[in-house]
Amino acid sequence: MANNHASNDTSQSIINSTLSAIATDGISNLTTKSISKHASISTASIHYFFNTKENLVYNSFAYMIKSIRIDMLEARRQGRDPLARIRGVCETHFSARQLSEEAANIWPQIWSHATHDPKTARLVKIFGARMISNFTYDLRKLGLPSQQARLGAIELRAMVVGLWVEKQVTKNTLQGERLDVFERMLSRLQAEALKHKTYPQLE
Amino acid sequence: MANNHASNDTSQSIINSTLSAIATDGISNLTTKSISKHASISTASIHYFFNTKENLVYNSFAYMIKSIRIDMLEARRQGRDPLARIRGVCETHFSARQLSEEAANIWPQIWSHATHDPKTARLVKIFGARMISNFTYDLRKLGLPSQQARLGAIELRAMVVGLWVEKQVTKNTLQGERLDVFERMLSRLQAEALKHKTYPQLE
DNA sequence: GCGGACTAACTAAACGATTAGTATACTTTA
DNA sequence: TAAAGTATACTAATCGTTTAGTTAGTCCGC
């Protein structure tokens, strides 16, 4: 499915250019020409490395999601307690350090692409599932019973997505307000966990 | 900007076909030919009514958002109390009665289009702002102080979007779970409102 | 160490197909 | 008859992709 030169410098720069082009002009306006211009290569090289444009798009999405996932795992590793891990994951999703500013606009492009491309759909599904799974684990560690932990995780995941759309697309709220909403939810979950704890427990 | 035959039968069927085509194949694969085939008209008619394809896309998005808004206003009118109005608005957003099943996939297409089209961006921004504004109003009526009402509204709006993405794109949760998450949030907001009420109050 | 065989990386140019949009003529309706 | 609506046939541009080739470097026998 993928190519066997994927570690190459050029193919990586093609992927970066693809993501950048999608972010600025949208996937509807993505052409092999615009990519080649941005990456300073010929359009033929695109097909040399990625066979088809569709395959390049998929690999670009996969690369971006993989990058974010690596960052999220790192954030989890650094979190001292469940709450810190949850906070870390969310912040990663919002900062997206590893990608250029403009690349932030790619999420809705992935979502819209997923509605008619099964492979991309699978990609986002797995990413979302892992996020819910991680949150569920953290909330259980925080002291919530499994049912509530799962619902809380779904809620957290929905909130991350919803606030992301609000920040990047709708733009009707201030950064401070979004942070407030998020912190309120965290302390609410913490309070809920405390209620369920039989024994007080140190972190 | 728009056309002046907008009330026409043909132009409406063109819009419907456009939305349907976008929902199934994505905006990247939208062509005047596929629209004309689906609507059983010639491509010339598209340009007769909508001048450019870009303008048709914009008008289609505008029509869809307007339809949903009308449904949401109707749901609000039928809600007996603030909580029922909130619930009604959310349910409308999820059922989208007025549109075909497939058209549900159009939201992410609008979001992705908005990232590089200012006019579409304005459309979704206004829609989101009205939703937050309505929720804020309802939460104030429920008894929340204005600051909390605004935060709660932002939270509700984010949750609607987030759960929508979860339902339509990511697909990792059951309908029942999403409803649970939503109901938990509503009762939480209600409890928060009761705390702030100086006097008990009948609905 | 040297020359020819081989290969990976890359490109210029051209391919056929498809695109949005137009010119124009025909048909309906009022 | 005049305007509105629709279709046919077309254009110029652009699309993704392919072909046929160049370049630069590596390997191997001698």
Return the string of H and E elements of chain A: HHHHHHHHH
Radius of gyration of chain A: 19 Å
Largest sheet properties of chain A: none
Shape of chain A: elongated
Features:
203 residues, mainly alpha, Tetracycline Repressor, domain 2, 9 helices, disordered N terminus, DNA-binding
Helices, strands, pairings?
Two copies of one chain form a homodimer.
Chain A (H helix, E strand, L loop, with lengths): L8 H17 L6 H8 L3 H8 L2 H26 L3 H14 L10 H9 L3 H25 L3 H25 L4 H22 L7
Helix pairs in contact in A: 1-2, 1-4, 4-5, 4-7, 5-7, 6-7, 7-8, 8-9
Chain A binds a DNA duplex (30 and 30 nucleotides) through α3.
Please describe what this structure looks like:
The structure is a homodimer of 203-residue chains. Chain A is mainly α and 203 residues long. Chain A has a domain at 62-196: Orthogonal Bundle (Tetracycline Repressor, domain 2). In chain A, 76% of the residues lie in helices and 0% in strands. Chain A has nine helices and no strands. In chain A, α4 (53-78) runs antiparallel to α5 (82-95) and α7 (118-142) packs across α8 (146-170). The longest helix of chain A has 26 residues, at 53-78. The radius of gyration of chain A is 19 Å and the shape is elongated. Chains A and B meet through α1, α6, α7, α8 and α9 of A and α1, α6, α7, α8 and α9 of B. Chain A binds a DNA duplex (30 and 30 nucleotides) through α3.
Short synopsis of the structure:
The structure is a homodimer of 203-residue chains. By secondary structure, the first copy, chain A, is mainly alpha-helical. Chain A has helices at 9-25, 32-39, 43-50, 53-78, 82-95, 106-114, 118-142, 146-170, 175-196.
